[in-house]
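#onboarding

Welcome to the new folks! Below is a worked example of what a typical request in this channel looks like: someone posts a single protein sequence, and someone else replies with the predicted structure as tokens. Don't worry about understanding the tokens yet, we'll cover that in week two.

Example request:
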Amino acid sequence: MSNRYWVSIAAIAVAAVIAGLYVGRLVSQPAVAALESGTALPSPRTVAAFEAVDTSGAAASQAALTGHPSLVFFGFTHCPDVCPTTLALLAGVQKQVVGNEPGLANLKVALISVDPERDTPDKLGQYISAFRGDFIGLTGSTSQISAIAKAFSVASTKVDLGGGNYTVDHSATVFAVDARGRIVAVFTPPLRAEALVRDLRKLAPVMAAASS
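Example response:
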């Protein structure tokens, strides 16, 4: 047989090996869950370090979102509708999955204030206690809150209502954060409790990943 024949055979063999490696790599990559309420990220997104204040008035950081999975929402205590509605929904979802999904047994709901001027630690603590869930509340200085919002790519704008009053327009996104403090999925409104519960069950193995 000619040298050309053996060269062709060798080329085919090399191509087969390369193709096998490529397919194997694809198979070994974790599948991204298809969600009803939002989008699962192909790779967890690390949140930049930040500083804040918790509801006891103590200094806090991104460590408040580690060691347990979390649902993170940005809002404020004077919010007339979207915030209380969303937080009530998340509290209900939390109750459903905590007792029925081992991977989410210590799931927290975190409210990060976008109104640091009015949301003192005490006021924020009283507000989240009304939802009767396992909640975390974070506030801080204007610069601290701006940095946290930037870390999550959340937009908020102070809107003057006249007479010294104001409101805050903000994103209504809910972030699924794993036990290592990384964003693994983004949920966008309108949110439905039943769909969100199903989505969290899909994400449970990822969200409950060991923090080490």
